[in-house]
Amino acid sequence: MCMRRCLVGLTFCTCYLASYLTNKYVLSVLKFTYPTLFQGWQTLIGGLLLHVSWKLGWAEINSSSRSDVLTWLPASVLFVGIIYAGSRALSRLAIPVFLTLHNVAEVIICGHQKCFQKEKTSPAKICSALFLLAAAGCLPFNDSQFDPDGYFWAVVHLFCIGAYKILQKSQKPNALSDIDQQYLNYLFRTQVCLMQQHSVQRTKVGEVPLSLWPHGFLQEVGLKRSRSVFSTYSVVLLAFASHPTGDLLSVLDFPFLYFYRFHGSCCASGFLGFFLMVSTVKLKSLMTPGQCAAWIFFAKVITAGLSILLFDMILTRATVGWIS
Questions:
Q1: Digit-coded pLDDT (tens) for 266-295
Q2: 3-state secondary structure the chain
Q3: Which residue, 20, 168, 294, 309, shows the most beta carbons closer than 10 Å to its own?
């Protein structure tokens, strides 16, 4: 059992490292700064792989009530905000800086538990949260490559993560499994991408291919109502996320659009994102919250350290001090 946990932990760290490095390569080295398309491609691959896994019996997607699915919709909106803002921030910030700001999401969760849920919080956890907040607050003043837009999107990213995890913890026990939640996230993100494509083609919006929906969801949730709700949320979100035709038209000028390394990196990013999701679910199911936190911390340290060797960045002593 111990060996199995170690294997799952190492698999998670490998997927975490490879996913971040691949995304950073596409966003910063190749400069593919079209997050709507890039993350849409990732979620499309992830959704298809999860659907195939469900069809083959490798993953279990349960039928859920309409109320459970509708309750989860705000979290799906936040999921899109997480990946969109995260891509914007990662394209402009060094990975160590990005991960340091990413950790502040735990401060939001801790503050919500302390102030609104009145949970008892240990002094050690409060001190840890304050240290994370201080490190993130001092980082912009010591960053020699300070990018206002990068920090702005990082703040949006961490607030979305904090709100997402709060909603996730507020769900009724056994209402939706982690796989069910992720599947709905994939469906919602695919819906946004389809709407953006249809807005360019000036065709009817708001249709998700029936092949993407499990029969259980179609029967329990109700096809027409679910599609209508997903469409409504997508319209609102798309209005704030980006110009409806901006990325789709601008990408035609991308210099590496027809290069194999670009295609290979995008495909690898999609597959790695899926494997990271699966390994994360497996990690949570086999280990205690403390053990999961330790493996996640280990993965972040390795990723931040190797990124310094692989990507060009300028880190002052003060910056390294606050990051570490």
A1: 889 889 999 999 999 999 988 888 899 899
A2: CHHHHHHHHHHHHHHHHHHHHHHHHHHHHCCCCCHHHHHHHHHHHHHHHHHHHHHCCCCCCCCCCHHHHHHHHHHHHHHHHHHHHHHHHHCCCCHHHHHHHHCCHHHHHHHHHHHCCCCCCCHHHHHHHHHHHHHHHHHHHHCCCCCHHHHHHHHHHHHHHHHHHHHHHHCCCCCCCHHHHHHHHHHHHHHHHHHHHHHHHCCCCCCCCHHHCCHHHHHHHHHHHHHHHHHHHHHHHHHHHCCCCHHHHHHHHCCCCCCHHHHHHHHHHHHHHHHHHHHHHHHHHHCCHHHHHHHHHHHHHHHHHHHHHHCCCCCCHHHHHHHC
A3: 20
